Amino acid sequence: MGYAQLIDRRMTVEEYFELEEQSEIRHEYYDGNIYAMAGTTLNHNRIVGKVRNLLGSHFLPRGCDVFSENIKVKVSDKYYPYPDVIVTCAPKDISGTYVVEHPSILVEVTSKHSEENDRTLKLKQYRTISSLQYYLLVSQREYSVEVFSRVDGGDLWTYRSFENEEDVIRFDAFNFEISLKTIYDDIEFARSE
């Protein structure tokens, strides 16, 4: 998974939720294993905030909700990750307490430690969520956003990459767009991130 395994024994989902309620740090759950979440860089946090605000300006007035970093998604009974940004319009999610089950958009801001996991395990698992329309991988090292989009609500997904400051990402399913310039405004890229 790319994170340090915290506990050397398998846990049930119920045990995992008990741990999460008592813990001061976040853990992801995958098939009985618990993984501690690593800290982030300043740029990671800045980009997450910008993306959350950009999505929030469109979705919040429409009765949807936008969460960042501290809310988990139920991908299946075996997988509970913490995406960097979540958009959901499902009433059950909006009135929920700890978990989003019907996300429309998921965003991961990649780092050198998470990138492989974000583009393999998470991509594979997230695509199984029937409500999910878009999955974004946003780099914190350069102008780069990769977008995976569900085609017509089916199992087919398209892929597009955006690498220029003036590129615009269109979310056709929601009649919405974001430019890379607004995501990366005032971000100074550092080679070590």
Task: Give an overview in words.
The protein has two domains: 1-38, no CATH class; 40-183, tt1808, chain A (Alpha-Beta Complex), CATH 3.90.1570.10. Mean pLDDT is 91; it is low at 1-5. The longest helix has 18 residues, at 42-59. The chain has helices at residues 13-22, 42-59, 91-94, 115-119, 121-126, 180-183, and strands spanning 27-30, 33-36, 65-68, 72-73, 79-80, 85-88, 99-100, 103-110, 134-139, 145-150, 157-162, 168-171, 176-179. Helices cover 24% and strands 29% of the residues. Strand 9 (134-139) and strand 10 form a beta hairpin. It has a six-stranded mixed beta sheet with strand order 3-6-8-9-10-11. The protein has six helices and 13 strands. 32% of the residues are buried. The protein is α+β, with helices and mostly antiparallel strands and 193 residues long. It is globular.
